[in-house]
Design brief:
Length: 248
């Protein structure tokens, strides 16, 4: 029954995650609904999502969406943030954190609704040093969040990298995938060391997540930024519903 609940949703999560991030908003509840304790659900979801994100990252790299300087800085800072966040998650009650995220979401949704095209920010290109510094800050902060909780990480990275670092949507998508893969792998190692991952379920769900990520990345490369904005809005709504469900 666990496999029947988790695997189809892991496929859908992979598809959504490859386009605009936020696949964890679909896959993490699936593990919880299947009856896993919260810490095991978060840890096993990390295994599945890491497998899928690896495929999407490779595809984005092959399509030339990754700018080396942004990726190197983002990966280094994301790794440090995720390591801190995942260790914090093992020892912290996350109620207050979820309340804060729920308060922030309406502002994020308003921003996405107001912005017709995220490529508009890239027209006002920042000096390379400033763009790299902002990318480092974004990767560090969101890396902590991904290690601590996770769902919506890709969406938040996409929004921050386009709006704050003024990366174009394709570059932001490539940078997002590289950072997200790094934060996933870092958190996964911490969870594996602490014995929180259910390997059989995680590996099978990961295979379904890979299939979804492959199709999602293919859709993004064909349709570009036009598909990112509506998916982001759906992810934000799902995230809000998920947080309310958790808090109640």
């Amino acid at each position: 029954m666990e496999f029947l609940i988790v695997c189809p949703l892991a496929f859908i999560a992979g598809f959504v995650d490859a386009i605009a991030g936020g696949g964890g908003l679909i896959s993490l509840p699936a593990f919880i609904f299947a009856g896993l304790p919260v810490h095991n659900a978060i840890a096993t979801n990390k295994l599945a999502s890491t497998m899928g994100t690896t495929i999407a990252t490779i595809r984005y790299a092959v399509n030339g969406y990754m700018v080396k300087a942004f990726v190197v800085v983002g990966v280094a800072c994301g790794l440090a943030g995720s390591f801190a966040g995942s260790n914090l998650a093992l020892h912290t009650d996350d109620f207050a954190f979820k309340v804060i995220m729920l308060a922030i979401l309406p502002f994020v949704a308003f921003f996405v609704l107001r912005t017709k095209s995220f490529d508009a920010f890239s027209k006002d290109e920042l000096p390379r040093g400033k763009a790299l510094a902002i990318t480092a800050g974004v990767a560090s902060v969101i890396g902590v969040y991904d290690g601590f909780y996770g769902p919506g990480t890709g969406t938040f990275l996409m929004i921050a990298l386009t709006a704050l670092a003024h990366q174009d949507v394709r570059t932001a998508a490539g940078t997002t995938k590289a950072i997200n893969l790094t934060t996933n792998v870092t958190a996964l190692v911490v969870f594996l060391v602490n014995g929180a991952v259910l390997l059989p379920l995680g590996l099978v769900a990961g295979a379904f997540n890979i299939a979804g990520n492959w199709l999602g990345a293919r859709s993004f490369t064909k349709r570009g930024s036009s598909i990112a904005r509506p998916v982001m809005l759906v992810v934000i709504v799902l995230f809000a519903v998920r947080l309310v469900f958790d808090l109640l």
